[in-house]
């Protein structure tokens, strides 16, 4: 009985120890379960950071999209403004061209009115001018050459003034004078200075139609024109006026030469 009791006691002790060990082993999952909130907080933090990064990326994308949209709008606005400016410039140019054409028509109309009187004076002056022997090897003109010179000049009224211009639609002062006299076979020098010494010097108080007027000194003139009678002269004046008929009283010449 004692032996059995001892054996039974040992068995029970063994069972108790085993139970304790199993109980200890079974308690371990409880310890891990307690630590779960810590792991969950870290994971939550990572998720929050990831969400923030995603939002920042979305904001950056939206910002770039807005910038691109603004840039495209600016380009379109600039194109519209450029087209509007071009249309405005074209309209201004057309208006200026119309104004110039109207001025040319008016000047040519006035020139034709004056030409009838000029041609009458030219016919009488051409016979008297033949008695004046031209100097510096200027060839003698044919009959009626004064009227031809004046007629050519009248036809150029309204043309543009361009420095160095020799026609057919733009002239400087000496280029126009040279071209006019070339119509009747008179070869004049090209510059104002040289033209002021061509032919016979005449006083400005004794002018005849066809006389070459000059401003400045003889041999150092800076401008030339042609006297067309009635106290008027025709010249390629300047870039703002072009080829015009002007009153000699408003801009008296310093001298004149006669080649016809």
Describe the structure.
This protein has 260 residues and is α+β, with helices and mostly antiparallel strands. 59% of the residues lie in helices and 12% in strands. The chain has a domain at 90-258: Alpha-Beta Complex (endopeptidase fold (from Nostoc punctiforme)). The protein starts with a helix and ends with a strand. Mean pLDDT is 76; it is low at 23-27 and 111-143.
Instruction: Determine the strand fraction and express it as a percent band.
Output: 5-15%
Provide the residue-averaged pLDDT: 76
| Name of the top-level CATH class of the domain at 90-258 | Alpha Beta
Order of helices and strands: HHEEHHEEEEEE
What spatial order of strands do you see in the largest sheet?
Answer: 3-8-4-5-6-7
Shape: rod-shaped
CATH fold-type name of the domain at 90-258: endopeptidase fold (from Nostoc punctiforme)
What gyration radius follows from the Cα positions, in whole Å?
A: 54 Å
How can the largest sheet be summarized?
A: 6 strands, antiparallel
Number of helices: 4
DSSP strand count: 8
Can you tell me the CATH architecture of the domain at 90-258?
A: Alpha-Beta Complex
Structural class: alpha+beta
Defining key terms:
alpha+beta, 260 residues, endopeptidase fold (from Nostoc punctiforme), two-stranded parallel sheet, 6-stranded antiparallel beta sheet, 12% strand
Summarize this structure briefly.
With 260 residues, the protein is of the alpha+beta class.
């Amino acid at each position: 009985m004692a032996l059995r009791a001892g054996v039974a006691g040992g068995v029970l002790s063994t069972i108790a120890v085993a139970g304790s060990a199993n109980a200890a082993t079974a308690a371990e999952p409880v310890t891990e379960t307690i630590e779960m909130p810590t792991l969950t907080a870290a994971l939550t933090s990572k998720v929050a950071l990831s969400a923030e990064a995603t939002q920042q990326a979305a904001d950056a994308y939206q910002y770039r999209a807005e910038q691109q949209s603004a840039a495209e709008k600016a380009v379109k606005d600039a194109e519209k403004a450029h087209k509007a400016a071009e249309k405005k410039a074209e309209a201004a140019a057309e208006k200026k061209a119309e104004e110039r054409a109207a001025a040319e028509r008016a000047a040519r109309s006035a020139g034709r009115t004056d030409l009838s009187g000029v041609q009458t004076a030219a016919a009488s002056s051409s016979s008297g001018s033949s008695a004046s022997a031209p100097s510096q090897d200027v060839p003698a003109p044919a009959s009626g050459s004064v009227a031809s010179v004046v007629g050519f000049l009248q036809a150029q009224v309204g043309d543009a003034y361009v420095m160095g211009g020799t026609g057919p639609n733009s002239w400087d002062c000496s280029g126009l004078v040279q071209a006019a006299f070339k119509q009747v076979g008179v070869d004049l020098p090209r510059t104002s200075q040289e033209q002021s010494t061509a032919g016979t010097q005449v006083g400005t108080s004794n002018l005849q139609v066809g006389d070459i007027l000059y401003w400045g000194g003889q041999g150092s003139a800076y401008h030339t024109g042609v006297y067309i009678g009635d106290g008027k002269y025709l010249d390629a004046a300047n870039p703002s006026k072009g080829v015009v008929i002007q009153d000699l009283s408003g801009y008296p010449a310093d001298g004149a030469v006669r080649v016809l």
